[in-house]
Amino acid sequence: MSDPVSPPAPAPGPADRDAPADLDGAAAAVALASSMVTGAARRLSEGDLDAEQVVAYDLAHCAAAVRGAEAALQYGTLGADEARLACAFVADALADLATRVLGREAAFATTPGWLGPAASFVSAYRDPAFLAELCGVEGDRHLDADFALVRETFHRFAEEQIRPRAEHIHRANADIPEEIIGGLADMGALGLSIPEEYGGFAGGGESDYLGMVVATEELSWGSLGAGGSLITRPEILSRALVAGGTEEQKRLWLPQLASGQVMNAVAVTEPDFGSDVAAIVTAAARTDGGWLVNGVKTWCTFAARADVLMLLARTDPDRAKAHRGLSLFVVEKPRGEGHGFVFTQEPAAEGRTGAPGRMEGRPIDTLGYRGMHSYEVAFENWFVPDANLVGGPAGVGRGFYFQMAGFENGRLQTAARALGVMQAAYEAARDYATNRVVFGRAIVEYQLTRAKLARMAVLIQVTRQFSYQVARLMAKGEGTLEASMLKAYVCRAAEWVTREAVQIHGGMGYAEEFPVSRYFVDARVLSIFEGADETLALKVVARRLVEQASA
Ligand SMILES: Cc1cc2nc3c(=O)[nH]c(=O)nc-3n(C[C@H](O)[C@H](O)[C@H](O)COP(=O)(O)OP(=O)(O)OC[C@H]3O[C@@H](n4cnc5c(N)ncnc54)[C@H](O)[C@@H]3O)c2cc1C
């Protein structure tokens, strides 16, 4: 890390570093925004949400910004710099809300000028002089000693093991080296959510979720595709097994997942059904001693290297049963290398009768997020023994719920992935701006660059604190709505932060030789997977807000 960027002479008003930030003003502004959101949700609850998708989508993002602003208020109580970051976040969040509502006041059940009472607060903390002066203030994470150690440990691993390899993996579309996988396994990163009794490191309580967030951010700072995202796969399968597996299945699979002896991929999405998971058609039909899988999955990331696939399939051919006709399987397969694979099963060799089985993986080339590789996987009579049906006979028809339990934590973890990418992009931009001289001055001395860097740091620190709060809520069995809001908000924020980081690099931001170009393309996927932004906003956040409003 380079030296913090040194600020110019302070300007009067909030730009004065010594002036206490107006947290009361921030709290009043947040209360105003919160009541606008509640009023809009109440109005939407009176009609058909799907007929008002545009407003519902904006409402969801407004609510997420308000929830983030509430996290900022708490953070702001921790110190003077924290308070200034909080005020900057709140002012920007309100400006965002204002543009979403502008011209649609009736739809939001409000009137032009609704923001009036907070106008002077917003002006003060969107003041360019304030933002320029804020540049270089990054804020403390306020992690206690245990979590600070978790952070330090994973940061060091990312710096020493992941970063030196990340560029090559991205530019050569190469495989993730076994040293990274083995290293993560040795550090316990693959068993963060696996209970201790099953060979993992989850002791129950806050530390499981917060530790996962902290570790995921640091690994994603090293690389999204070759670091942070590697630990999301065992997380999903192990949570699904904990939720629905038989005792025997837990004892068999969880220790192997925790140690990295068994690596997994997740096969849920299909070519015709992504957001609409309940409609999937890949079939698992009963046969002697097990199930025969036929169908096509897509976007199955890590499918070649994985030893098992967590597969969601339709076990009841009656499609009217929708999600109630789905079951979850742990599908064993050989480990593959390279960018495509074909595996076959010979029933006679396995002491069975019937047609040979086939599993073929076709790689999907992507803009970024490289290393694990994503595949379209076609199954033809692929045999899965009864023992691999999650939950045993009682698991038939319950697969949708088990996979949901698997993904429950995924939104929080994806937010942590976004944080790591943003932090990496911010640091790259900050360092480049300090060293790059244009028109006779380092670009960090220009007001516009300073304001950009300040806003990036504000977004990162506040959404990080938001993610810590959600982790604590989830540890208490709460926070699923907040996790969705956080995911939606922070993944969009990552697009803006990485975009500005590229921009600060000028032409070199577009050169592959600078990692910032990788951060930009990597960030783009975050709003697509683990709940596409629109689906998450409409079907989870807006729907819940409307339910709450009409309760
Ligand atoms: C790099 C990458 C890795 C992935 N890894 C995996 C993996 O390992 N395993 C796995 O199972 N899946 C994986 N996915 C798949 C991912 O989860 C899906 O892409 C995602 O769920 C969206 O589904 P879809 O692509 O079919 O988009 P669609 O469902 O076709 O949606 C297309 C667009 O329409 C919007 N939309 C959908 N419904 C509505 C609506 N009702 N109203 C308005 N807008 C709507 C969506 O938000 C989206 O913008 C991965 C995807 C990517 C890109």
Proportion in helices: 40-55%
CATH topology of the largest domain: Butyryl-CoA Dehydrogenase, subunit A, domain 3
Q: N-to-C terminal Cα separation, in Å?
A: 50 Å
Could you tell me the strand content as a percent range?
Answer: 5-15%
What form results from the Cα inertia axes?
globular
Number of helices: 16
Bound molecules: flavin-adenine dinucleotide
Query: How many distinct domains?
Result: 3
Q: From the alpha-carbon coordinates, what is the Rg to the nearest angstrom?
A: 24 Å
Question: CATH class of the largest domain, please?
Answer: Mainly Alpha
How many beta-strand elements?
Answer: 10
Instruction: Describe the largest sheet.
Output: 5 strands, antiparallel
Structural class: alpha+beta
**Chain-averaged pLDDT:** 94
Strand order of the largest sheet: 2-3-8-7-6
Oligomer: single chain
Unreliable sequence segments:
6-12
CATH homologous superfamily of the largest domain - what is it?
Butyryl-CoA Dehydrogenase, subunit A, domain 3
Order of helices and strands: HHHHHHHHHHEEEEEEEEHHEEHHHH
- The second-level CATH architecture of the largest domain is Up-down Bundle
